[in-house]
């Protein structure tokens, strides 16, 4: 039971069946080559499933084929969900984008900023002129670190101080607030713990545990019955094993993702992190994406107003930042490709050498999952594998886009550029 309507044939959704086979062949090849244990791809057009394929199994050598309702760790695909949760409270008038985060996170009231550092990693610090705003928190321009990378002393401090391994969201905030900002708020983009802190803001404003808020305000209304921070005992047989590169061309069960231990899905996580902790299925996450594509509503249930979705889909990285490159960025943001409130935003696909439509929203997770939402072509795509993000999974995501759009046959007539 997919809980989503489907076309009888891809051609009804404007896709060439033969050309879509390239995507299926690539996925199957990844399994046959031992590069992934299994995976799912779910392609939707105009609110209906065009193709929904599964490959391999939940674990290497599994004789049972991967079920359509297989459970995946979606890691940073939690971030758009957290952003929607925050915008629900935004619509209730509980906060504004230009509020200082100290209104909800007073731990950050006495911040320092790293303005320079030497080869040994010693930082020169100054006072910040102001705290980050909620807009900057949601767009990763607040100056916070993450502790997942090793190319800046602030990042190394986040890892050394165990920010991501804190025992609670409150403790995570305290540890992060004790570390200097990497740059002054609004002056650069850096992937960070910002969305974990946003989850804490949701808790403090709503008065609810973060996971309870998500279930009550998003998952239950949207019918995302398999999404949450923990897997029920009866559903554990549907959970996929997370793998990592074994260094010899094969796979090994992952024990950590970028230094953070992989938690047991049958137990509550140490924290219900807004930045990456949810488990979901391809169908559940497609329902979430379709809600965004449809302007905040699905199956007669409204989560957000269309104007709020448009706001989330607007670039929030300041223009001077987009005008220059920076080695610390996770992605090559520029005037053609920015970041909104929880998603990357494609403004000029031709300039970026991409086939997707203008306004496409996207993100991925550290376990190899990814999605995009293309409003110009009315497309939702969700891909689910369980391989810790690396060049192989990055290639997988890139080819999935190419193989999808080369099969799209009714994207509109070609027009000569004048």
- Report the strand count: 17
CATH superfamily of the largest domain: DD-peptidase/beta-lactamase superfamily
Strand order of the largest sheet: 2-1-17-16-15-14-13
Q: Report strand %.
A: 15-25%
**In the residues, how many domains can be counted?**
2
Radius of gyration, in angstroms, nearest whole number: 21 Å
Shape: globular
Would you tell me the overall average pLDDT?
Answer: 95
What's the CATH class label of the largest domain?
Alpha Beta
Counted by DSSP, the helix tally is: 12
Distance between the first and last residues' Cα: 49 Å
* SSE order: HEEEHEEHHHHHEEEEEHEEHHEEHEEEH
Low-confidence stretches: none
Q: Output the CATH topology of the largest domain.
A: Beta-lactamase
Summed up:
The protein is of the alpha+beta class.
Detail the topology: elements first, then pairings.
Blueprint: H1 17-32, E1 38-45, E2 48-56, E3 72-73, H2 78-91, E4 112-117, E5 123-127, H3 134-138, H4 153-160, H5 169-177, H6 194-206, H7 210-222, E6 243-245, E7 251-253, E8 256-257, E9 260-261, E10 279-280, H8 282-293, E11 297-298, E12 301-302, H9 306-312, H10 319-322, E13 337-339, E14 344-346, H11 349-352, E15 361-364, E16 370-374, E17 379-385, H12 391-405
Antiparallel strand pairs: 1-2, 1-17, 3-10, 4-5, 6-7, 8-9, 11-12, 13-14, 14-15, 15-16, 16-17
Helix pairs in contact: 1-12, 2-6, 2-7, 5-6
Pfam families: Beta-lactamase (PF00144)
Protein name: CubicO group peptidase, beta-lactamase class C family
InterPro entries: Beta-lactam-related, Beta-lactam/transpept-like, Diverse_Enzym_Activities
């Amino acid at each position: 039971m997919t809980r989503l309507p489907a076309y009888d044939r891809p051609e009804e959704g404007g896709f060439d069946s033969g050309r879509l086979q390239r995507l299926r062949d690539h996925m199957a090849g990844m399994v046959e080559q031992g590069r992934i244990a299994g995976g799912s791809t779910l392609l939707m057009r105009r609110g209906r499933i065009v193709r929904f394929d599964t490959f391999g199994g939940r674990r290497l050598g599994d004789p049972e084929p991967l079920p359509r309702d297989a459970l995946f760790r979606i890691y940073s695909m939690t971030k758009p969900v957290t952003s929607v949760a925050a915008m629900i409270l935004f619509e209730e008038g509980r906060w504004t984008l230009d509020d200082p985060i100290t209104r909800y996170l007073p731990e950050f009231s006495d911040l320092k900023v790293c303005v320079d550092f030497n080869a040994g990693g010693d930082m020169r610090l100054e006072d910040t002129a102001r705290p980050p705003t909620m807009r900057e928190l949601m767009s990763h321009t607040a100056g916070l670190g993450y502790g997942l990378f090793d190319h800046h002393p602030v990042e190394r401090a986040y890892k050394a101080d165990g920010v991501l391994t804190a025992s609670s969201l409150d403790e995570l905030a305290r540890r992060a607030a004790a570390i200097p900002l990497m740059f002054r708020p609004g002056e650069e983009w850096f992937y960070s713990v910002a969305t974990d802190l946003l989850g804490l803001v949701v808790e403090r404003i709503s008065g609810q545990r973060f996971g309870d808020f998500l279930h009550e305000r998003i998952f239950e209304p949207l019918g995302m019955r398999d999404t949450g921070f923990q897997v029920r005992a009866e559903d554990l047989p549907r959970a996929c094993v997370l793998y990592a590169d074994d260094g010899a061309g094969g796979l090994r069960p992952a024990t950590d993702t970028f230094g953070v231990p992989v938690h047991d899905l049958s137990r509550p996580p140490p924290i219900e992190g807004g930045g990456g902790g949810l488990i979901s299925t391809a169908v559940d996450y497609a329902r979430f994406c379709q809600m965004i594509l449809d302007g905040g509503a699905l199956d007669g249930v409204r989560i957000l107003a269309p104007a709020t979705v448009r706001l989330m889909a607007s670039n929030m990285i300041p223009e001077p930042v987009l005008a220059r490159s920076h080695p610390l960025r996770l992605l090559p943001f520029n005037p053609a490709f920015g970041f909104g409130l929880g998603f990357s935003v494609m403004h000029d696909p031709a300039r970026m050498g991409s086939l997707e439509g203008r306004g496409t929203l996207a993100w991925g997770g550290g376990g190899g999952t990814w999605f995009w939402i293309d409003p110009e072509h009315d497309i939702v795509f969700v891909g689910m594998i369980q391989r810790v993000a690396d060049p192989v999974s990055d290639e997988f995501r890139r080819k999935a886009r190419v193989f999808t759009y080369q099969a799209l046959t009714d994207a509109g007539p070609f027009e000569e550029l004048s």
